[in-house]
Amino acid sequence: MKIVHVSAECFPVAKVGGLGDVVGALPKYLNQVKDTEAMVVMPYIYNQFTKSHDLTIDHKAVLPFGESLLDVTILKNDDLDFPLYLVQIEGFSHRHQPYGYDDDYHFYIAFQTAVLNWIHQWKALPDVIHCHDYHTGFIPFMMKYCHQFPKFREIASVFTIHNGEYQGIMGKNMADYLPWFDVWQFPLLVWDNDLNAMASAIKCAWRVTTVSPQYMKELMSQGRSIDDLFQQEASKCLGILNGIDDQVWNPATDENLVKNYTVKDIKSGKAANKEHLCRKYGFNPDYPLISFIGRFTDQKGVDVLADAIWQAISIFDLPINFLVVGSGDLEMESGLEEMNNYLDERYNTYIGYNEAFARLVYAGSDFMVMPSRFEPCGLNQFYTLRYGGVPMVRTVGGLLDSIIDFGDEGGTGIRFIHLSSEDLLHAFQRAMYLHEDEKNFLSLKKNNMKKDFSWQKSAEKYINLYQDLIN
């Protein structure tokens, strides 16, 4: 069985968020299954990876695009656990990041068309083309209805939604850049009177998945127009919970830690990493350390978290350390840094993205807070468990699917319902009392490290999905 994953991101080549982690791990675990071959196709990114790794030319072509002809080069790299193909298209911005360019919509239509032109020439076609997020959302339509791709009519297409907020909404005139199709199929590209790449994929893909069962339910009931489409196509929609690469995320071997550790020496291992962070930021190591790692966006609830931290220290004087790590919205960055001038040594920030430092924070933190407004899956809770910490999560999306409150049987973390300062403050107090109960706290952390959220379990579900489609 041959599966082609098409994505805008793939770790370690280029990663903005969870999409990059998923596409960088799932094919690796699929390739561990007998008679399965998975590969990744993504845009060429001008960065350290492409500069430092050997790339060989696999294919060159000329792509008709509107009134232009574009030179396309597809480069191959064999250094990962799966074949990686990078699509270079001249005539667009030199992309040092996957997104954020004025020509994004044009580029990603050209990218999708170039990928299908190339695959259509293969002697042995894939069994499944697995598309990820709106940047690949027109592929299922083109496979079915564009006349230059007749070989794709019987090839299965899967579309996975990693974040339903980004749908690829654009003017109808952008359809002029797609390969030739019959005009009566135009409605399959449209939703709410605009071209909508995600809506098109939901209509045309053989299966539509998202990264947790709960998030699929939420996509059908958020009160937005596109909810109706999810409900109409519900019979082919399902949620499969993400996993993590537990070989890459392993506190026993992680070179970024001050001290490596396993379940057997978790107490001394986490203490050593926590003490390092406390010295660096002036925290009292006897207090629990609650950290946040993520993008500073409305989605992540950072605005409410900031208010709750302010109240926890300046009003309620809780003996808790808070470390906020991340970047994003400039106003949020400025506000979080400004809080350093008014709060004492129980609060600090690290503004920026540094994966090596993030791993140290997972190892040294007692708790990891995730106050998301919505969360398709989330991966930080899995990293926290893997490194023997306790996630503090709002009950939405994949956070609800993956974390059980420590007060219940089989509990792994602290859950709260509402995105409010009051609920967060209550969660902080529960964390404080749990931290004081050393015996039960240590037992909980050990049990968390033993949990299996690896990609092996999730990959089996994808294999079953692919096999059902092929059969």
Summarize the amount of helix as a percent range: 25-40%
- Placed side by side, the strands forming the largest sheet appear as 3-4-5-2-1-6-7-11-12
First-last Cα distance: 11 Å
Main β sheet profile:
9 strands, mixed
Q: Which structural class fits the helix and strand makeup?
A: alpha/beta
CATH level 1 name of the largest domain = Alpha Beta
Strand elements, count: 18
The CATH topology name of the largest domain reads Rossmann fold
How many separate domains make up the residues? 2
Number of helices: 16
* Overall morphology: elongated
Based on the coordinates given, report the CATH architecture of the largest domain: 3-Layer(aba) Sandwich
What is the C-alpha radius of gyration, as a whole number of Å? 23 Å
**Uncertain residue ranges:** none
Under CATH, the homologous superfamily of the largest domain reads Glycogen Phosphorylase B
Overall pLDDT? 96
What fraction of the residues are assigned to beta strands by DSSP?
Answer: 15-25%
EC number: 2.4.1.21
Binding site for ADP-alpha-D-glucose: 15
Protein name: Glycogen synthase
Domain Starch synthase catalytic: 2-230
Topology of helices and strands:
Blueprint: E1 2-6, H1 18-30, E2 37-43, H2 48-52, E3 56-65, E4 68-77, E5 84-89, H3 104-119, E6 128-132, H4 139-145, E7 156-161, E8 169-170, E9 190-191, E10 194-196, H5 197-204, E11 207-210, H6 213-219, H7 226-232, E12 237-239, H8 266-281, E13 289-296, H9 302-315, E14 321-328, H10 330-338, E15 347-351, H11 355-364, E16 367-370, H12 380-386, E17 390-394, H13 397-402, E18 414-416, H14 421-436, H15 438-450, H16 455-470
Parallel strand pairs: 1-2, 1-6, 2-5, 6-7, 7-11, 11-12, 13-14, 13-16, 14-15, 16-17, 17-18
Antiparallel strand pairs: 3-4, 4-5, 8-10, 9-10
Helix pairs in contact: 1-16, 4-5, 8-11, 9-14
